[in-house]
Amino acid sequence: MEKRVVAFGEVMMRLSTPDNQRFTQANHMKTLYAGSEANVVASLAVFGDSAEMVTVVPENDLGLATIDSIRKNGVITDHILIEGDRLGLYFLETGAAQRSSKIVYDRFNSAFSEIKPGSIDWDSIMKEASWFHWSGITPAVSQGAATVCAEAIASANKHGVTVSGDINYRRNLWQYGKSAHEIMPDLIAGTHIIIAGLEDFKNCLSIDEPDYEKACRVVCEKYPQIRKISTTYRETVNATHNKLYGVMWDGRKLSNSQTHDIYPIIDRVGAGDAYMAGLIYGWTHGMNDMETLEFGVAAGVLKHSVEGDVNYCSVDDVKQLAKGENIGKLLR
Amino acid sequence: MEKRVVAFGEVMMRLSTPDNQRFTQANHMKTLYAGSEANVVASLAVFGDSAEMVTVVPENDLGLATIDSIRKNGVITDHILIEGDRLGLYFLETGAAQRSSKIVYDRFNSAFSEIKPGSIDWDSIMKEASWFHWSGITPAVSQGAATVCAEAIASANKHGVTVSGDINYRRNLWQYGKSAHEIMPDLIAGTHIIIAGLEDFKNCLSIDEPDYEKACRVVCEKYPQIRKISTTYRETVNATHNKLYGVMWDGRKLSNSQTHDIYPIIDRVGAGDAYMAGLIYGWTHGMNDMETLEFGVAAGVLKHSVEGDVNYCSVDDVKQLAKGENIGKLLR
Amino acid sequence: MEKRVVAFGEVMMRLSTPDNQRFTQANHMKTLYAGSEANVVASLAVFGDSAEMVTVVPENDLGLATIDSIRKNGVITDHILIEGDRLGLYFLETGAAQRSSKIVYDRFNSAFSEIKPGSIDWDSIMKEASWFHWSGITPAVSQGAATVCAEAIASANKHGVTVSGDINYRRNLWQYGKSAHEIMPDLIAGTHIIIAGLEDFKNCLSIDEPDYEKACRVVCEKYPQIRKISTTYRETVNATHNKLYGVMWDGRKLSNSQTHDIYPIIDRVGAGDAYMAGLIYGWTHGMNDMETLEFGVAAGVLKHSVEGDVNYCSVDDVKQLAKGENIGKLLR
Amino acid sequence: MEKRVVAFGEVMMRLSTPDNQRFTQANHMKTLYAGSEANVVASLAVFGDSAEMVTVVPENDLGLATIDSIRKNGVITDHILIEGDRLGLYFLETGAAQRSSKIVYDRFNSAFSEIKPGSIDWDSIMKEASWFHWSGITPAVSQGAATVCAEAIASANKHGVTVSGDINYRRNLWQYGKSAHEIMPDLIAGTHIIIAGLEDFKNCLSIDEPDYEKACRVVCEKYPQIRKISTTYRETVNATHNKLYGVMWDGRKLSNSQTHDIYPIIDRVGAGDAYMAGLIYGWTHGMNDMETLEFGVAAGVLKHSVEGDVNYCSVDDVKQLAKGENIGKLLR
Amino acid sequence: MEKRVVAFGEVMMRLSTPDNQRFTQANHMKTLYAGSEANVVASLAVFGDSAEMVTVVPENDLGLATIDSIRKNGVITDHILIEGDRLGLYFLETGAAQRSSKIVYDRFNSAFSEIKPGSIDWDSIMKEASWFHWSGITPAVSQGAATVCAEAIASANKHGVTVSGDINYRRNLWQYGKSAHEIMPDLIAGTHIIIAGLEDFKNCLSIDEPDYEKACRVVCEKYPQIRKISTTYRETVNATHNKLYGVMWDGRKLSNSQTHDIYPIIDRVGAGDAYMAGLIYGWTHGMNDMETLEFGVAAGVLKHSVEGDVNYCSVDDVKQLAKGENIGKLLR
Amino acid sequence: MEKRVVAFGEVMMRLSTPDNQRFTQANHMKTLYAGSEANVVASLAVFGDSAEMVTVVPENDLGLATIDSIRKNGVITDHILIEGDRLGLYFLETGAAQRSSKIVYDRFNSAFSEIKPGSIDWDSIMKEASWFHWSGITPAVSQGAATVCAEAIASANKHGVTVSGDINYRRNLWQYGKSAHEIMPDLIAGTHIIIAGLEDFKNCLSIDEPDYEKACRVVCEKYPQIRKISTTYRETVNATHNKLYGVMWDGRKLSNSQTHDIYPIIDRVGAGDAYMAGLIYGWTHGMNDMETLEFGVAAGVLKHSVEGDVNYCSVDDVKQLAKGENIGKLLR
Fold first, then answer.
1. What are phi and psi of E75, to 5 degrees?
2. F4-321: in CATH 3.40.1190.20
3. Are strands D241-249 and D260-262 parallel, antiparallel or unpaired?
4. CB-based contacts of A145: which residues, under 8 Å, 6+ apart?
5. Which residue from A151, B191, B281, D285 puts its CA 20 to 30 A from A108's CA?
């Protein structure tokens, strides 16, 4: 049986206003279930890989609906805990032109945040896994989530499972009494591939080096198990028009992908997760670093054209964009 | 200037699945802002009365949207506090035929529940008021809410304002360490009109008398300031077909209203609030007790035909139903 | 070429709130184009008959959309005038249970109401016609409309075309300075089949006889060219549940149809027009009076199950209901 | 690992007009993926059982969407074939009141109908199975489907798997040159539980006995492996109001369930499949025959209140209805 | 109490086709209530200012819905007259790319147009006001509206209230027998701030000077009470892509704002009103002329990104755009 | 009576996902009825010309809905055959930015494809016709369709009717045993105006000349009755942004139209048909070749801004774009 890419993190209900409405205008909201790590494994399942999501959903109808939704994407849900009271939520107002998109989070005290150390049998899970993915959102949510994330990373390392982490520092989280500086270094020390930018280095690793390439070098010196570091650069022309490219530190040097001009943006949420999934796919399917980078960026770019958090695009869709073929042509 | 009916309580975002969908089927939810006490004053404002809502909304776009929504109904919003982090929510799945409607609450830790004693200047408010309305949901939410509710009742009594309370005992609330038995008697002791059934008497006042008329007599003996007690009886034929009538203890005897056969039910949430508003309207506009009871019940019945929590029906609409005229006739 | 049923009257834009919303709740309205006489010929076209609508639409995009809509139903639009400024409108709020449906008209000063005598070449039209239908709404709208209606009736009689009139007295119209008593008798004098109730007899023909059968006899004595008189009786249980039957005076006696119990009502607007169309169809396709009456009532009943003003039901659908066969059965 | 209930049959795209529109009125259609056998296993997965669907979907985006949809319900999709060109479809117009609902099928030449004998490895599947379900629709579709169905039944019998069959004779199918009389007896000979009515006995087994109990006796004499025979009786008051009860032949005698009065019907498609799933659930979870019958009928009844083909109701929902508890009550 | 910005003008129902449909394609229309002057005060209320709308709405459910809608925006509605028969309407078809947007007005004979001189107690209103705003649409509608507008301006001047006027000459209006030349000069003579372009100068003031700066000088010579004149210039690349900048004559010289490139345009209706509101806000909150101009233009630009006539953007949103900060960035 | 433009071809139901959703995301699809040739005559009817569609629709409710839809556009439907079982379908997923739009056809075995030679009385039709239009899709569908198309062309030539053909070679069709090389030359030999590109020349006429002008010359030598050849060139910047221009061979030389920059594309399906209709309109209303070319291209460009297959734009709309006037300006 094909080994799985496993991710751990919170899955929330996303509620977004339709037709670019502002919150006060909306009398209905589009709903779906998403989260950074779940978006990564969903994208991999759409690519055809075996992928599993580990999370906690509350013991009510919304929790069950969350599982249905993850399952629909082809992601394995066998180790999801069903306990606790409330599902985390986020409200999204999609901007346009000069008006920014806006997210209002409502995720404190969620079932996920109340996860208890030891409640997930990671060793069973990692036996079936080839890759484990986490993000910096999880340890920011609660001490329990941080501890369980550390347990997962430890187990992954024990079973020889590659670990990727999307550092993704968010100042608004981290409200349970610990700072990122106290928690993140240990988690990163068990991680082989990281997505991180200069702000992440500073806020999580206390590395305040303004040159990205030099910063990567410093990081790798302190965390020698890290094999690759990557991030994307986004130029925001306006809320509907962005430009995007990726960079990858391959352990020795920094490379840039091509830049993609993206308009109109249908939904930019989840683009970083699609990028992460693209990188994982590239590295685990025999692409070299440069091919992987271009594949990852193309995946991130295509995500902007798909509503919702998940990149519902096939490997072929992504490869064609990476090669610049058939872009936007009507396919009959 | 006309004196106001003032209410105090939590206003939540309501998210309901469209077209009788179950939660797992929905990819959008209808949204509006509602709460038991707000529904009462909204109904009175639609009747043409001067009405004000006092509540707390969080300091974000959803809080502002809540105020806009209350204001749209014609309710005064001058003393709403804007502070705290999250808006309480409730999710509604509308049933049909034999399948029940279902509510999933997500209201803990809301901005309203974190209200602090003394934060509302009730004396200013009560100077402009002729009536104050509260419900048993508010003291069940948090100690802060209970205390502020008590402050309001005290101020109302000081200013000679009539006080009504919809006792509405809910077992799932009351999670902050106090029981209804500890809190409710003092609040009821400052209230002149109560909506309460046998369960409310038992759970809030420790009066375990199975006969409603006798129970009312006992309540009035212990709480001599109470002038009227009322409740509605509902026969649930199925989720779309109910029968409803009201009873009123006028201090001396119990009277029953006519029974209304209601199908199809468009939305039964808020019917009790519409009934409460109908009673307040009747008593404050010169109707006698029996007329008031029939007006209240007719208001409650009409609410079932209107989507949302608020009874968007005029005084004429209600009076015609109370008199049995033009029911359901096409009006050109 | 098959001869046509021709109707003359105003076609309006209908704007109705969705999902039983009250006007103040709606942020969109369903739109379609309809009018009493147009509904009759649309129904006949759906039955497969050759049918034509004569009306006036304004010289703007809404006027053209009106024509497209009439044409979609299979109705001939060759003699529609395109002139004038505004399309008449009506706003519909669909009630439920005890809450009535409500119509707000906005039809004054419409392009149709400004029609000028002589502007329609009725003789050309009547040469192709076998039947002409008008309603009492038309002469109530303006002097111009009344005059053109009279021209049509005169031309129909000249060409041996059967004339039907749905008297349909509406107090809110008749605002151009003439009363129904001044205008209607002449029009009825050229009409062979009328749909009218006791109120219509009183308000249009000054016949104030409380017994319908006797009234029909009086009408036929004064208007000897009248062959049949018919009307429907509706019991409104509530806005969603009605009972309906028809009666027909065949020149000698009165007969009643079976009574149909109708719930839930999807849309009752246009039921009378569907009934009229059913009568015309029955008489022009070899049914006897009783069969025609049952066919007409069944058509009117089925209309309640179809959204919009038009009865999108086939002859077979109607016949089966008239015979009581397969009512409501799932057809695969 | 829990053994599975496995079903085999076609899954189609269902396209239904919204809001009771007639086909010519619709400018959009609601879409979902469903089929009689898939509905049964979906219902069982919603109940919490392990369930698998075996089918064929075309090698295009609609085929993949079909799998996603089945998976969302919690049904295992591991042995679905992806081959062929087109997905079968059915169009549904939902009636109301006296107007019937109408289905237009477009399923000929579907990918499923082109399935080839031997293309499913039934022995692997049946090793994991405890129950196999098929319906009479499958052998009616094509010779290939009939043969593969026979292969499945044979394998099930070989592995001691209980077999249920919903005979469901449909005259419009059976167009590939064979009659039901030629194909069905052999399939029924390997089946232990059948859902069948008098028409099914006549058309599939040439048993033309008008008394249901006697007919069951005759069937069981000819097919001694049959343990139970069941069917439902439906009284169609109108398209929105039906009455339903079930009967079960338990090998010795016939029993009737209680009758349920169902209005308003939200969606009656799939009620028979919900009934079948209820029976399977009852028998496999220790209910006796009478409890099973009441559970099955309650499941079928609840299905009418849920949009779509699948009965999204829990075991508790069904049990409460079977016991007559909390019917239609608002659950907070 | 904070003094109010008061506006006077007509509020119409706006009916717009969804999803860029042409009128003939639409089977529903989005509805809202708007008008040039109401848009200005709504925008100011969203900014947090005290603002009041004076208008006339008909005595029916649509009139009441209009008031609810104005109130929702936080605008005071205390002096709105409820009288007359019909609400003015406008139909909007939103274009895209090369296809223009199109408005069909239906506002003649509206309740507002039938306003009678003396029917508004302007002195009471102006006592609470700090600013009065009118537009050239109002005097174009009817003699009554023109007279009441003149009464308002006179009262404002009497009470020392600053007056702004958006000249906005529209050839299609002015059908009641007077020309703009006859009416507008007197109104402008009581106005301190005007929004006007060369066409407005020519058509309303008979000043036919092709150079804007010179024209402003001439206007100020003839109307010495005018303090500022402003207008916007729009380059229409296509219906979805415009460029916009503003110019302001400050009494001595002309200044230009930066140019904003706007795509995609969600809704350009009301952009001029948002600009006007931005100017009023700037001048009344201590900004200098240049800051005010940039604030006004930024407000007008942001309006293009918001559906409907009203600029639902906060002061911070506008300030950030004026400063070029965070444009289109995702805000979490 | 004005002579008609007649077209012959298949009309399908089009089902498209809303809001740029991918197929697996959609729970409803927008539906309409369209086909290349029907789009051409619909566009001409919208321009105001007399136009007729000849096709075959199945004998079911979807077939009747197809006719209603064609009729709505003002196209004559008098010779449509109603026979056979299924309506051809196509599913459309509208892309955005870099993601392509995608069409899944489901048109095999349609009622149209089963048309029988001799089943259309072309001579009657051509007597009323001035122009006949066909496309290369029709002969690719089935031998029957190819034969009936040949019959139509022969009849048109017999009656002196101009024939246009949109060659439109599609590799996925042509599955009935004949190749385009065997069928198309004879059809083209009876055609006076063709729309064709280099691929069409190669695949249908075996002319493999890479220079378009030279290729046109060769085509005209072999098919001397051909008067004009034209095609469009499209640069796909992305799925939402294309550039388009047309070229026309007038028998002697090749001319290019201006290039139009199109963004955002609302719906590009049918743009070629709108172009064809524009050419027919130009030539039949006295434009010269260059005016016709610019009119055709402008029509094709405008189609991109209209949802659906049909170019709902007037002659004035098209002429203004061809002249570069008022592009995208708000029209009041």
1. -90, 140
2. yes
3. antiparallel
4. A10, A112, A113, A115, A138, A139
5. A151
Backbone angles phi, psi at F91, to 5 degrees: -105, 130
Give chains near C: 3+ CB pairs under 8 A.
B, D, E, F
Q: Is C208 exposed, middle or buried (0-12, 13-18, 19+ CB in 10 A)?
A: exposed
Residues of chain B positioned with their CB less than 8 A from the CB of A65: 23-24, 26
Instruction: Tell me the ipTM for this assembly.
Output: 0.96
- Residue spans per domain, chain C: 4-323
Residue D101 to chain C, least CA–CA distance (Å): 5
Handedness of CA B177, B182, B186, B192 (dihedral sign): positive
Determine if residue C9 is left, alpha or beta; phi over 0 gives left, psi from -120 to 50 gives alpha, anything else beta: left
Nearest to C298 by CA among D101, C281, C252: C281
- Give CA–CA dist B244/B256, Å, rounded: 11
- Contacts of residue F170 in chain A, CB cutoff 8 Å? 332
CA–CA gap between residue C29 and residue C51 (Å, rounded)? 29
Write the DSSP string, D218-229: HHHHHSTT--EE
Give the C-alpha distances (Å, rounded to integers) separating C91 from B31, B305, C17, C168: 25, 19, 8, 19
Residues of B in contact with D48 (CB under 8 A): none
Helix B271-284 to helix B36-47 angle (10° resolution) is 50
Right CATH for D4-322 from 3.30.70.100, 3.40.1190.20, 2.40.30.170, 1.20.140.10 = 3.40.1190.20
Domain spanning C4-323, CATH class? alpha beta
C22 and B CB contact within 8 Å: yes
Which residue from F105, F236, F264 is facing A329, i.e. has the nearest CB? F236
B327 touching chain C per CB within 8 A: yes
CA–CA distance, A39 with A31 (Å, rounded to integer): 15
Is the Cβ–Cβ distance between C66 and C57 less than 8 Å?
yes
By C-alpha distance, which of E47, E71, E74 is closest to E278? E47
CA angle (E18 as vertex; E17, E21 as ends), nearest 5:
65
SS3 content of chain D, % helix, strand, coil (to 5): 35, 25, 40
Lookup: tokens for C244: 């309906």
DSSP helix/strand/coil, A303 = helix
What number does CATH give the domain A7-322? 3.40.1190.20
Task: Name which of F143, F225, F217 is nearest F176 in CA terms.
Answer: F143
DSSP letter string, B48-85: T--EEEE-EE-SSHHHHHHHHHHHHTT-B-TT-EE-SS
Three-class SS of E204-217: HHCCCCCCHHHHHH
CA angle C294, C295, C296 (to 5 degrees): 90
Nearest residue in A to B59, CA atom: A104
pLDDT per residue, tens digit, chain F (332 aa), is 689 999 999 999 999 999 999 999 999 999 999 999 999 999 999 999 999 999 999 999 999 999 999 999 999 999 999 999 999 999 999 999 999 999 999 999 999 999 999 999 999 999 999 999 999 999 999 999 999 999 999 999 999 999 999 999 999 999 999 999 999 999 999 999 999 999 999 999 999 999 999 999 999 999 999 999 999 999 999 999 999 999 999 999 999 999 999 999 999 999 999 999 999 999 999 999 999 999 999 999 999 999 999 999 999 999 999 999 989 999 98
DSSP readout, C112-163? GGG--TT-S-HHHHHHTEEEEEEETHHHHH-HHHHHHHHHHHHHHHHTT-EE
CA distance linking residue B29 with residue B32, whole number of Å: 10
Interface of C with F in 57-76 (CB under 8 A): 68-69, 71-74
Nearest to D305 among B99, B170, B241 (CB): B99
Nearest by Cα to F261 from F274, F247, F245: F245
Q: D166 and chain B: CB distance < 8 Å anywhere?
A: no
